[in-house]
Design the sequence.
């Protein structure tokens, strides 16, 4: 259960970084406050640090240790605030086309993400611009990233070359609600991707062909769950997961990485020992993340895993909430642009809800609900509470059905992923053995499809952002306070020894 000791300096630094990234950096860069006002605001917490440090020097202080901890937490919060403001400034997208957008007829650049297939068989990609061209042979340097939409006949070629390829495309720029989009008429690959990127693309394409050729519908779901390739996934199934409030299951995150890590630990722990297996597992996790691609929720889980491995190697105390906080600060510092994505925000809030409200609920349910049910139910409720405000803001509706539907789908998905990995290994070694697993995976796919269909029929709850946010925060605080009260009551009960 979360208690007062769980709010370490790392957690305070993450809170300061989040405040600086999502609030302070916006009002500063929008010119709402001046640099002088910003420095004046920093003086207040720094003064608190000095106050607590001076208080801790007096031997008559009632609690010297508490004063020292308070000064460290405030100092960590100030440091996190500075990191968040800097990262927020770097996260602001700057697009410099060099020419008027209406005159541009061609763009050149490097693919920064894996191309994905969208409606109509067209390919969508993100291009890091290097040059733009206009009529009469006019060219200009360009900076920034732009979304690129290619016709169906070019989608296969784009996926063949993959991320890291340099391309040139003719077309026009369309100003959409989410930013400029280049609608391409043709595609010209000017330079292939580096060898490592080409090898990665070949592996992804090979997995896609293998699962598509022999897996059918369940193969497309396996690809989405194992490496995040959702090109062949039935769009109706994706919609059902979304309507059932379980779209997080399709996004690579901690649940998927935990399964991969469990397989690695099972295979390496006995022959290598715990420390060596942890180091080897960290290396394999890094390779897996490179294969899957830059997904904020996956990178969050990988960072927590790597920090946990460092704690094992250095014999440090591992606290899940502190690991989450350190991963947040590192991720927004390394990749500031990822902090603006919805998946990034929901990933951290969901896990924070599990570790705070979820653990508190699990402690309250202890002895009242079977442990097999109380753990998953508490985790679902905790994640739902802390993500409710963000979901109501971005999606205008809450899918409360995901609390119950997820209790069924998560265990089924875990078994399905283990089965998919076993099928893949057998298919490489002895294909006829993998054929025995095919019907089992197909049956699991049918059960999951029917489950998510039933969950999607439950109507969504529409509510305003502020009411939902206030209610969810009040409930979360109330749950933690109730858990602390239950803990105090249980500690007062004398033992029977």
Sequence:
């Amino acid at each position: 259960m979360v208690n007062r000791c769980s709010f370490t300096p790392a957690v305070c630094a993450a809170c300061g970084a989040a405040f600086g990234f999502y609030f302070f950096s916006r009002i500063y860069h929008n010119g709402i406050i001046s640099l002088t006002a910003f420095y004046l605001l920093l003086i207040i917490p720094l003064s608190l640090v000095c106050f607590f440090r001076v208080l801790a020097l007096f031997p008559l202080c009632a609690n010297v240790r508490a004063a020292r901890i308070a000064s460290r937490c405030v100092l960590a919060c100030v440091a996190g605030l500075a990191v968040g403001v800097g990262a927020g400034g770097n996260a602001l997208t700057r697009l410099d086309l060099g020419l008027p957008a209406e005159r541009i007829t061609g763009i050149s650049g490097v693919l920064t993400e894996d191309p994905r297939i969208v409606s109509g068989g067209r390919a969508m990609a993100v291009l890091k611009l290097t040059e733009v061209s206009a009529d009469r042979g006019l060219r200009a340097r360009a900076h920034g990233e732009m979304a690129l939409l290619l016709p169906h006949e070019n989608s296969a070629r784009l996926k063949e070359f993959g991320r890291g390829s340099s391309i040139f495309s003719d077309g026009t720029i369309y100003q959409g609600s989410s930013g400029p989009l280049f609608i391409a008429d043709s595609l010209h690959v000017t330079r292939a991707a580096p060898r490592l990127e080409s090898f990665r693309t070949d592996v992804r394409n090979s997995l896609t062909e293998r699962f598509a050729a022999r897996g059918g519908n369940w193969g497309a779901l396996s690809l989405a769950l194992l490496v995040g390739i959702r090109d062949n996934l039935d769009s109706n199934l994706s919609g059902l997961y979304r309507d059932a409030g379980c779209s997080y299951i399709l996004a690579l995150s901690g649940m998927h990485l935990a399964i991969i890590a469990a397989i690695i630990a099972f295979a390496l722990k006995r022959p290598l020992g715990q420390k060596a297996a942890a180091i080897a597992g960290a290396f394999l996790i890094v390779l897996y993340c490179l294969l899957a691609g830059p997904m904020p929720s996956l990178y969050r889980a990988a960072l927590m895993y790597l920090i946990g491995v460092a704690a094992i190697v250095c014999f440090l105390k591992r606290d899940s909430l502190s690991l989450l906080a350190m991963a947040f600060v590192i991720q927004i510092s390394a990749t500031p642009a990822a902090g603006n994505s919805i998946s990034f925000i929901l990933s951290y809030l969901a896990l924070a809800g599990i570790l705070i409200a979820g653990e508190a609920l699990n402690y309250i349910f202890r002895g009242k609900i079977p442990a097999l049910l109380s753990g998953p139910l508490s985790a679902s409720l905790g994640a739902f509470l802390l993500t409710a405000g963000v979901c109501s803001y971005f999606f205008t509706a809450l899918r409360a059905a995901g609390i119950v539907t997820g209790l069924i789908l998560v265990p089924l998905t875990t078994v399905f992923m283990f089965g998919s990995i076993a099928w893949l290994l057998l298919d490489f070694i002895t294909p006829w053995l993998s054929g025995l697993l095919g019907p089992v995976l197909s049956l699991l796919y049918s059960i999951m499809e029917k489950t998510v269909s039933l969950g999607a029929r439950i109507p969504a709850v529409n509510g305003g952002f502020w009411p939902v946010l206030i209610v969810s925060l009040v409930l979360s605080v109330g749950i933690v306070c109730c858990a602390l009260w239950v803990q105090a009551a249980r500690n007062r009960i004398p033992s029977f020894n």
Remarks:
- The CA atoms of residues 362 and 378 lie 5 Å apart.
- The first helix runs from residue 9 to 29.
- The chain is about 65% helix and 10% strand.
